[in-house]
Amino acid sequence: MLDDVDLGNHRLTITGRVRPLDDLTRKLLLDWLEHRRRRWPNTANLHLLINNQTATKTSRASNHWISAAMRGQDATLERLRVDRQLEEALTHGPDPLHLAEVFGLDEKTAMRYADSARQLLLASPGEPPAELSERPNKVQ
Question: Would you say the pTM of this structure is higher than 0.85?
């Protein structure tokens, strides 16, 4: 919802969890909000993501509509999610507690991302860890 966006404090609430907004996500969010305001200036829909069908209603955009733009792209929503979680582990250190808090991950998943980040941080330049070189679908 629009109320879940806190641009001043660089935060976004997703399913009740407050998450920090990195600079890129904040910029994209600002661009989307400007586009939304210009495209549907009189909408009463309080959902963050709307489209031509939902702008005149109060319902949210469908999952199909949200993911349709990603079809045929190398960057799927799943790959972007995985990449974002790994990037967080590389940027803020391989701390599973931090990852669990920021992304709402269970402990085993958070530990897996932290371990992958540790391997990347220890790998020599130009030589990816074995785990990543064995997984061609992994965003690197």
Answer: no
